[in-house]
Amino acid sequence: MKLALTEASFTEAIFARFSRLRERNPHPKTAWSQDWETFLDESGLQTAEDEAEARRIAKLLALDGFLELRLRRDGERIQRFALPLSSEREWFAAFRRIHPADVSDKSVELASIPWVQKLQFLTHTRVNVELEDLLKLNAFLSAHEINSPVVPIKERSLQIFGDEKRLDSLLSSVLFRPNHLDAKSDLACEIIGVPLAWKRGPACASAQPLIVIENAATWHSYCRWNAERKLFSAVLYGDGNRFLDGVRYLSDIFAEIGGVRRILYFGDLDPQGLRIPQFATKPGIPSVEPHLWSYRQLLKLGAGRGQPYDGEPPSPTLCDWLGDCAEPARQLFTAKQRLAQEYVGWEFLKSAVTSTES
């Protein structure tokens, strides 16, 4: 496997889930497999860009024998994927981890090392992390005070391992299971979400709500639309699932635009597209509301044009957030379909009759 592929969100999500399973069952008789849509949904890879990139990487991995794919009848879309037993150790090696089936030989070696108190669990726990990484962690914890200032995880990772991405990949390992290490309290670091891209609205709209748009193409169209119609104090790019972390930056944006505003949201009509705004919460930040005008237009423009959605059925209450659009959304999901927000595009927006309602 090319090491560069381990930097992709898709392969990181595969390894995080697969490696946990192998820790529980190091000697499997059958290959691990997953439904494609369900995996993307549960991994938060639900934007059109994320799905296209995941499909591209999956096909590359399949060509090299690291995945097996079952395609749908159209020969393009993926229905299910499996990780062949013969490739498991190469996956672990690519992520600089030890396959759990090979861990037992190191138990005596680990027990003989003078670990700091926070790493004492290593003397009686199966750990599939390279010894070099464990020793670097031990050295850091020995030399640093517990009250070190909290810094971004990549800065701490570079300090400990000389690799800014190493700590991210170790978060899915046994090192960070309950009652073991905690990134914030033990290593004084935290994951920093990708900052929100945004465009300020016209000055005459400075007191209006801001709107968050899930996908890049629609964000661009709404920025153009807002420049003409002056409906929003700001147009933010949510970037799909990244908005769940990016919500922390809303207080900075409020400071830039002159105070707290209502937060409206418009995204894809699929289960993950509805989970994102409902789960994007932070103390002191207003609850995210649907921009109902946009969802109404999406339902009209997408009528009879739904795209297949093969993930698990969502909770019956997930659609309640949509108000008067809830029932049409439920019917869409019952039919195992979704609507991409790009139906509400620039050609429609430039001539649409707008409403001041949310």
Topology overview:
Blueprint: H1 9-24, E1 32-35, H2 36-42, H3 48-63, E2 68-71, E3 78-83, H4 88-94, H5 107-111, H6 131-143, E4 151-152, H7 153-161, H8 166-170, H9 183-187, E5 189-190, E6 197-200, E7 210-213, H10 216-229, E8 234-237, H11 243-246, H12 250-257, E9 263-266, H13 271-279, E10 288-290, H14 292-301, E11 307-308, H15 326-334, E12 337-338, H16 346-349
Parallel strand pairs: 4-5, 7-8, 7-9, 9-10
Antiparallel strand pairs: 1-3, 2-3, 6-8, 11-12
Notes on the protein architecture:
There is one protein chain. With about 350 residues, the chain is an alpha/beta fold. The chain folds into three domains: about 100 residues, Winged helix-like DNA-binding domain superfamily/Winged helix DNA-binding domain (Arc Repressor Mutant, subunit A); about 90 residues, no CATH class; about 150 residues, no CATH class. It has 16 helices and twelve strands. A five-stranded mixed beta sheet has the order 6-8-7-9-10, covered by helices on one side. It has a three-stranded antiparallel beta sheet with strand order 1-3-2. It has a two-stranded parallel ribbon with strand order 4-5. α13 links the parallel β9 and β10. The N terminus is likely disordered.
